[in-house]
Amino acid sequence: MRVWTREAELDGRRLILPLFVHGEAQDHPIASMPGCARLGANGLFAEVEGALADGIGAVALFPVVPTEHKTKDARAALDPQGLLPRTVRALKARWPDLVVVTDVALDPYSSEGHDGLVAPDGRILNDETVRILVEQAVMQAEAGADVIAPSDMMDGRIGAIRDGLDRAGHTGVSILAYTAKYASAFYGPFRDALDSAPRHGDKKTYQMDPANAREALRELALDIEEGADLVMVKPAGPYLDVVRALAEVSVVPVAAYQVSGEYAMLKAAAERGWLDERRAVLESLLAIRRAGASAILTYYARPAARWLREG
Question: What's the pTM?
Answer without folding.
Answer: 0.95
